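re: that chain from earlier
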Amino acid sequence: VRDGSGERALLVGVDTGEGPEAEAVLRELAELTRTAGGVPVKQILVFRKSLDPRYLVGLGKLEELKSLAYHENASTLIFGVDLTPAQAREIERVTGLKVLDRTQLILDIFALHAKTPEAQAQVELAQLRYLLPRLVGKGKEMSRLGGGIGTRGPGERIAHLSRKLQDYALRRQEARQKRKRRGVPLVAVVGYTNAGKTTLLRALTRAGEEGEDKLFATLRPLTRRGFLPGVGEVL
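^ sequence. v structure.
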């Protein structure tokens, strides 16, 4: 989605009997699209008892979405459920539109917010592993993926990134062992994206970055020194 032009996108949610939950997923999809730099021009909730294994929402509905995209000047279809590689290819073939699912959209946001070398390597590896099965039939020009990955093929790049992340993991393990030897209690803050974890960490430790009202804004692990009443110093 993120190409600097603010791509206009149709958002498609699928309700197989979940009711309000499906509507909530569609609302979140709109926020994810905006976070990735896209423009959600229309939200469509499709009701189906079961998903079409080939076209997800059925061939007739895809033709409707294609027509709606034309009238809304939208170039992208974003689905609130994960698509199989075969479904993604068929939907793209039928509609002639760019097709993304929720996971691809989130990975795009990760790539946007990844600032450290480790985070960037993690995101690129995740993107490669997710996209690789979807490149079948895309042609030789797609086999190398492009987009800053250089001239390596996907398999070679995946191996290179895996080795790099193993090195990062060893360094983290050494740092954890040092903290463990010091005997300072460790406290973990967990929660869904944009729940306020960074803001809470800053309030407890009086250090660190300001929180942002964005989905998946913080992607790197943060460790800060703090003090809890009745416990004392903690990390």
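The CA atoms of residues 190 and 197 lie 7 Å apart.
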